[in-house]
Design goal:
With 287 residues, this protein is an alpha+beta fold. The chain has helices spanning 2-32, 41-52, 57-76, 82-101, 112-132, 140-150, 155-173, 176-201, 214-223, 251-264; strands at residues 203-210, 229-234, 241-249, 269-275. Strand 2 and strand 3 (241-249) form a beta hairpin. Helix 5 runs parallel beside helix 8 (176-201).
Length: 287
């Protein structure tokens, strides 16, 4: 039974990885490549190289990703993640397949700002999903893994410098408008990824100070199927004895608990705090 459950979880995980990777492929091929947006990463490098050579950006992405995979296997060995390999191969194959099945001679619309929004948001959203389940989109992430193992270089700074050089190159290879759009994409990409990851994991942390904790705890345990921690406290002004309840809820559960306390314990004092990540039983595991 346990083995069956593990296989099912692995299947669901790779189904999610596949869906996220295909979103990256779609956003990159339909919105990024035709507009020559070059805000870093392997696809940004491929856009620039595609302009100065007769090889398409999709083919350059395939070549660079495969070269990085070989480099990763050579330098990282067993430390090289299976998920990273899967995503790199799927993305490279997906872009090549899209080029053959849906050739595009120009941008989808005549609205470059609109297309920039989709070129940023779709891959960034999918990358955030991948990061959240312990996978990555490959590419320059492989270089980051190599840097992490063999040097003390600040990985984030090193990759940002690479992305910055790619974006600057777009200004010379294409035109000022494309370069400025690429700079906007470079600045917005990390913000979108961070925002999506935070919202995926967002929970509500409750600190409830009350006189009668029993009804509230029963509601938490029986209705919301959560647990809580209870301890005694003393008010600094009145020196009266109070009870403090600590608990964590998903966003939908938080609304139910807040409404219950308002209706049934109006004298209770509630502090509700957003938490971007909760690790423990009932939430995210340590692995």
């Amino acid at each position: 039974m346990e083995k069956h459950s593990k296989l099912w979880n692995t299947f669901l995980e790779y189904a999610l990885i596949t869906a996220a990777t295909l979103i990256i492929v779609g956003g990159t091929y339909v919105f990024k490549f035709p507009n020559n947006f070059s805000f870093g990463g392997v696809t940004g490098i491929a856009v620039v190289l595609g302009r100065v050579s007769s090889i398409s950006p999709s083919t350059w992405t395939f070549i660079i990703n495969m070269a990085l995979l070989v480099l990763g296997f050579a330098m990282l060995g067993k430390d090289f993640g299976v998920k990273t390999v899967y995503v790199s191969v799927l993305m490279s194959a997906g872009l090549s397949l899209m080029e053959k099945l849906f050739p595009m001679s120009g941008p989808l619309t005549q609205q470059p700002v609109l297309e920039l929004v989709f070129a940023i948001s779709l891959p960034a959203f999918a990358s955030a999903v991948l990061f959240n389940i312990g996978a990555s989109s490959g590419g320059t992430d492989i270089l980051a893994m190599i840097f992490r193992k063999y040097s003390t270089v600040n990985i984030g700074t090193a990759l940002l410098i690479v992305d910055l050089f790619v974006t600057i190159a777009a200004c010379f290879v294409f035109d000022a408008q494309t370069g400025l759009f690429s700079f906007c994409g470079l600045m917005a990409k990390s913000l979108v990824i961070d925002g999506v990851i935070e919202n995926i994991n967002l929970c509500k942390y409750f600190t409830i100070i009350c006189n009668n904790p029993e009804p509230i705890c029963k509601f938490i345990n029986n209705e919301l199927m959560r647990s809580s921690t209870v301890f005694k406290a003393e008010g600094s002004y009145t020196h009266s004895q109070r009870t403090i309840i600590l608990t964590v809820m998903t966003r939908s559960q938080a609304v139910l608990l807040r409404n219950y306390i308002r209706a049934n314990a109006p004298d209770a004092f509630m502090m509700i705090t957003n938490s971007s990540e909760i690790i423990g039983k009932g939430f995210k595991g340590f692995i």
